Amino acid sequence: MSVTRGINRLLRNVKKSVNISERQVLALAYQPNVNDFEPNGPRVVTDIPGPRSKQLIEQLDQIQNVGAVHFFCDYDNSHGNYLADVDGNVMLDLFTQISSVPLGYNHPALINAVSKPENLSTFVNRPALGVYPPADWVSRLQNTLVSVAPPGMNHVQTMACGTCSVEHGMKAVFMKFMSDARGGMPPSQEALESCIINKAPGSPSLSFLSFNNSFHGRTMGALACSHSKWLHKLDFPVPDWPIVRFPNLKYPLEENVVENRTEESKILEEVEDKIDEYNKKGQTVAGIIVEPVQCEGGDKFATPYFFQGLRDITNKRGMGFIIDEVQTGCGATGKFWAHEHFNLTDSPDIVSFSKKMLTGGFYKKVTFKPKEGHRIFNTWVGDPSKIALLEEVVKVIREDNLLDSVKVTGEYLMSGLFNMQSKYPGILSNTRGLGTLCAIDFNTTDNRDKAMADLRKKGVHTGACGPTSLRFRTTLLFKTKHVDVFMERFDDVLSQLNK
Ligand code: PSZ
Fold first, then answer.
1. CATH 3.90.1150.10 fits 402-499, yes or no
2. Fold of 121-397
3. Which of 165, 215, 290, 386 to mutate to test the pocket of ligand 1 (most atoms within 8 A of CB)?
C-alpha cells in the first residue's frame, strides 16, 4: 500500500474512532516512524514558562492550585523524546511525565491502536471491570500483563494509579496474614461486627514496615509507608508503623562490596529488631514494602543481597513482601522488572506497578488471591483502554528489542556521566544506575537546582530527587544520539557552574 493510501486509511479510521480535529488527525497521521518525525534537537524560543504558559497558569489559578505546574504543554506537537510547550519551545525530555511515558509522545503504534475500529468500544465504554468485564478482557490481560509477569507471579489485579495499587497490595497482605492467623477458618461473627466500627478483632492492630525516604503513595495506608517529604504527610493522622533506614551505600557498588555488605547486614538486623519491637508492643508487623531503587528519596540503590535478606526475613516470619515497581517497572533498568536484577530465590508476594505500564495494578502470588469477591475492589478497577494501549507498548518493546536498546543507551549514558564526574569532581559525584534509570549527585542543592534551570534554558527537561540528585527517567526509545544532545548541554552548564 502506498504511504498516501495508508495515511488516508488511518485518517479515516482515526476520524471515525475519536472526536479530534482534522488538524490534529493530520498532525498524527504524517508520522510513519518514530525516528522520522522526532526533531533533531531542542528549540528554545522563549523563557520557560513562556508568556502563553504564564497566561494559562493564571487562568488555572482561578480554578485550582497551580503551585506544582511547570509549564503548559502542546501534546499535538510533542514527538518521541521531545516535549513541546504552548510557547513553541521543544525540549528533550529526560523526566517524561514523572517517569511514565514508555514509547515517547504520539508513538505511531499507539495512534494506530486508537484508530482501530475494533478498539472503538474499548475507548468509548468504561466498564465496572470487577463486575461486568468485556468478552476480550481475559485475552487482553493475557497479551499484556500476564505475558510480562515477573517470574513466579501468576495472578494480576488491575487498578487505576500507583497509590491505589500499593494500597490494595497492602490490603491483600493484611488479608492473607489474618487468614493465616485464623488457620484458614472463616472470621467470627464478632470480627464481622467489630470491623465496621474499627475495633478488634475485626480491625486488628497490625502494621507494615517501610524504609526511611521511601515513597509509595498518598492514600492513608500507602502514606504511612512514605517518608520522603513533609508536603506528602503534614496534618494527616497516619498510624505509627515501623520505619527502618534504607541502606546508605557507596558507589560504584561493585567497587565497595565489603563496606556495602556490612551496611546491608546491619540494616537487615535492624529490620528484625524493629519487627520484634512492634510485635512486642502489640502492633504485629504483617509485611514489608520496599522500592527496588528508592526513587523519590534520591535514587538510592541497594544490592541483591539486601533484597534477598528481606525476602528471607518475611518468609521466615510468615509476613508478606511487597516490591513496589511503580517507578522502576516496564523496562527502564534493562529488565522488564527491576527486581529481576536481584535473582531472588523466591519471588515477592506482591509487585505493584503503574506509570510506564499505563495502567495501575499489582501482581500477586496465587496464595494472596482473596477468597471472596468485592474484597479487593472498586468501581472501575482499572481501565481496559489503557490495556489496549499497553498491548501495543508490549509489542513494540518486544519487536524493537527495547530492553537491549535500554542497556546500550544506559551504558553510554553512565559512561558519559562518569566522564562529567571526572571533569567536574568538585561538583559531581555518585554516578549510579541500572539501564537508563540513572542518577548523579551535585555537591549542593543550589547547584543541582541551578543546573536544572540552566539545562531547561538549553531545551533539556530534567527531574530532581532527594536533596542533591539529578535523575534520568527517559522513554524506552532514548538512544545514544539523545544522550549526545543532553551531554553537550550538560557540559556547557557545568562549565558555567564551575567558574
Ligand atoms: O508527589 C507525588 O505524588 C509523586 S512524585 C513521584 C511519584 C509521586 N511517584 C509515584 C509512586 C512511586 O514512585 C512509587 C515507587 N510508588 C507509588 C507511587 C504512587 O503512584 P501514583 O502517583 O500513580 O499514585
1. yes
2. Aspartate Aminotransferase; domain 2 (3.40.640)
3. 215
Q: Residue 59 phi/psi, 5° resolution?
A: -65, -45
Q: How far is the CA of 423 from the centre of ligand 1 (A)?
A: 34
- Residue 272 makes CB contacts below 8 A (sequence gap 6+) with 313
Give CATH 3.40.640.10 domain extents, the chain: 121-397
Block mean pLDDT (10 aa), the chain, length 499: 39 46 40 64 98 98 97 98 98 98 97 95 97 97 98 95 98 98 96 98 98 98 97 96 98 97 98 98 98 97 98 98 98 98 97 98 96 95 97 98 98 98 98 98 98 98 96 98 98 95
296 lines ligand 1 (CB under 6 A): yes
Q: What pTM does this model have?
A: 0.93
Digit-coded pLDDT (tens) for 280-337: 999 999 999 999 999 999 999 999 999 999 999 999 999 999 999 999 999 999 999 9
Mutate to test the pocket of ligand 1, among 327, 437, 471 (most ligand atoms within 8 A of CB): 327
300 bridge partner residues: 294
Report pLDDT digits (tens) over 327-351: 999 999 999 999 999 999 999 999 9
Give the whole-angstrom CA distance, residue 348 versus residue 176.
14
The 3-state DSSP composition of the chain as helix, strand, coil percent (nearest 5) reads: 45, 15, 40
Rounded Cα gap, residues 461 and 456, in angstroms: 5
CA of 203 to the centre of ligand 1 (A): 27
Q: What is the β-pairing status of strands 469-471 and 463-465?
A: antiparallel
Which cell goes with 337? 522488572
Q: In the prediction, which pLDDT does 67 show?
A: 96
The residue ranges of DSSP E strands in 58-149, in sequence order, are 82-84, 90-93
Residues contacting residue 435 through CB under 8 Å, at least 6 positions apart: 331, 332, 333, 334, 335, 406, 407, 409, 410
